[in-house]
Amino acid sequence: MLDDVFNGRTQIRIFAQPPAPPTPPPHVQTEQAHGEVSSTSSLVSASVLAPVSVSSSTTSTALPSQTIFPSAKLAGNNGQMSPPKLSRVVNSVPDLWREWTQGLSGQPSIQSLEDQYGVSWRQSPKEKTFFSRRKVIIDCIRTAISRGESSASAVVRLETLRANGGWSLSQLYKRLNKKELIFP
Predict the structure, then answer these.
(1) Residues 49 and 99 reside in one and the same domain
(2) Residue 34 maps to a domain
(3) Which residue in 156, 143, 182, 173 sits closest to 95, CA to CA?
């Protein structure tokens, strides 16, 4: 089946259904503001992976519907997961900050990869270089935050400088790295 997917002979349709809101089990109790105990509180949260129904068909035969989870990734031809990479389509400071702190398109955040794997997730020399250049921009935002500025304000200020200068993120990095642009 994977061979058919990689060679374009398989059509995949993904239908997502929103998960049902999580409800805590009856025995779960949490404290509310005044020390009261409640079995239904908004303080209880659960991480829910909702299954996604996938139906695929090839030009020769139809395959039955399958259920996978949204966090599942297709493995490469050698059966191993491809290492995560920084997005090459991010072109603004807010998008870079979002990729770094929250993740994009279902991928983990860069910060979580750093926290969990250290440098080992950045395997190729290209990825190491790209990461180092993007990190210069992220470090500027973090410096502004450490001086008391909100992350939103720091991101907007840096994006305004980039956009007003007509620069790409790469050009912004070069100016920051050469100290041609002082931020914060």
Answers:
(1) no
(2) yes
(3) 156
Q: Look-up: residue for tokens 């190729």?
A: 124
Tell me: the pLDDT tens digits for 19-41? 655 554 444 444 444 444 433 33
Say yes or no: 121 and 169 in one domain. yes
Residue 164, token pair as written in the block:
């007003």
For residues 67 and 52, the answer to whether their CB atoms sit within 8 Å is: yes
Residue 16's pLDDT is what?
A: 56
Encoded tokens for 134: 């993007």
- In the block, tokens 């999580």 appear at 22
For 100, counting Cβ atoms within 10 Å of its Cβ (0-12 exposed, 13-18 middle, 19+ buried), the class is buried
Is residue 149 situated within a structural domain?
A: yes
Q: Say if residue 167 is in the same domain as residue 102.
A: yes
Q: Which residues pair with 15 in a beta bridge?
A: 53
Parent domain of 158: 93-177
What distances in angstroms separate CA 137 from CA 67, 100, 121, 130, 159, one per listed residue? 40, 11, 20, 12, 10
Q: How many Å apart are CA 165 and CA 172, to the nearest integer?
A: 9
- Does residue 111 form part of some domain? yes
Rounded to whole angstroms, the Cα distance separating 73 from 107 reads 10
Domain count, the chain: 2
pLDDT at residue 136, as a whole number = 98
